[in-house]
Structure formats: C-alpha cells, structure tokens
Amino acid sequence: MNLGLSGRRAAVAAASSGLGLAAARALAAEGARVAICGRDRERLGAAVRSLGDGARGVIADVGTPEGATAFVREAQDALGGVDVLVTNAGGPPPGGFATTPLDAYHAALDLNLMSTVAMCRAAVPAMQERGWGRVVAITSITVRQPIPTMILSNTARAGATGFLKTLALEVAKDGVTVNSLLPGFHATERLRTLRGGDWDKVAGEIPAGRVGDPADFGSFVAFLCSEQARFVTGSAIPVDGGEYAGLL
C-alpha cells in the first residue's frame, strides 16, 4: 500500500532509539524526509545513519518547552518545513503518591505535557496554512489504565491527551489530523530499565503472549500519517497486545 508520504517532511522527537526511532524508520521507508532529535551525539549520529540519505539529526532535549520548540524550528530549517510531527519524550521516574515529591511533578509535566504543547505550537500553524498536516503523539497505555507505580506518567500524559483532543477538534477543518498512540510493553530500553530484561516474564502479562516489536509500532505511526488515515483524528489508540482491559 502506498501511504502517500513520499516527499513529506517529518520531525520525530526523541528518536535516537526505541519507539521514536522505529517511527522514524517507518516514515523514511515510505519516502518521507526525516529529522530526528536526541541528547547523545554519538547515538543520534548512528540513528541518523540507519535512516539513510537525507535524514537529519538535531541535538536537542525535548524535556523542556524551550528544547522542544528548538527541535521543531531546527527541523523546519533543515527540511524546509514540517508536514508530519511525531511528539515523543522519555518517561519520568516511577513512584507512587507517598514517595513522589511535589517538585517532581513540574519536571514530569514539562517532559510529557508541555513539550508536546510546545512542539505543536511550533509546527501546527504552518500545517494549517498549507491545508495538510499530521500530528502523532507517542504517549502511554497509562492514559487509559493508570499504573499505581507510575503516578507522574499517569498524570502528565493524561494532560497531554486532553490537549491533543482539543487541538484535533480545532484544526480538523484545516486538513490537519491529531492522534496519539498509547504503547504498552514494547522491547525498548525504557522497558528494560523499568522491568529488567526478562521478556518472557513480561510477555506473560500480555494477552498476545509477547512483548511488542517497535517496528510494528512504527508502522502504525506511519499509517496514521498517511492519506488513507485522513478521516482519523482526535483518537487515542492503545497499541498493547490487548493489555488494556476496559471496554472503551
């Protein structure tokens, strides 16, 4: 299937590894010109090389609104504009209500809420002017099914989901779609940090019986950016092997 992404310009945040890199690879495979960011120059360089000719790397920390805005601006300069924005950032540290200090919430909100707001503010107005754009936010299944030991992620990403839904309603008439994907357990360094490297044990908690493949996740990101997905907007879609247990 031709997704209609050849020649489109995509900015993918926090994409030197993990789900961000998987999304960037899927977009590049569809012919999009891709700019990615990361904090580690060496790892970012390796990721850019893996994306092939025409990919661009930007040293940026999207953990602050200023860093998030700077990434989009540099991607726009490098690519001549941005048609596709994939927002993404690392996760805040684990903890519950009793163990999480008040000031930790500020950093988590900057990382997983305000960075998304800042990237959208930098990229979406130009999409509206052109009459075409795609925003896909990588958030977490904790938006639908909060995890007791992840109170910072539960809180910040739920706020981001509210922002994205509101934005989607406002810009739909301009040909811009805004969606989010809610990953469950995928084989990434983030999961290794949180749960260790015993994928078989983690897989036992997932109805599909296996840990998610980042490449499959990336393909879903590319589809949401496609011409075929132009009538999908305002959605928050679990990608979790059936882990989410709710009806709605």
TrEMBL record:
It comes from Actinomadura macrotermitis. PANTHER family: 3-OXOACYL-(ACYL-CARRIER-PROTEIN) REDUCTASE, NADPH-DEPENDENT REDUCTASE BACG. The keyword Oxidoreductase applies. Keywords: Oxidoreductase, Signal. One of its GO terms (molecular function) is 3-oxoacyl-[acyl-carrier-protein] reductase (NADPH) activity. The lineage of its organism: Bacteria, Bacillati, Actinomycetota, Actinomycetes, Streptosporangiales. Its EC number is 1.1.1.100. InterPro entries: NAD(P)-bd_dom_sf, SDR, SDR_fam. This is 3-oxoacyl-[acyl-carrier-protein] reductase FabG. Residues 1-28 form the signal peptide. The keyword Signal applies. It comes from the Bacteria. Belongs to the short-chain dehydrogenases/reductases (SDR) family. SUPFAM superfamilies: NAD(P)-binding Rossmann-fold domains.
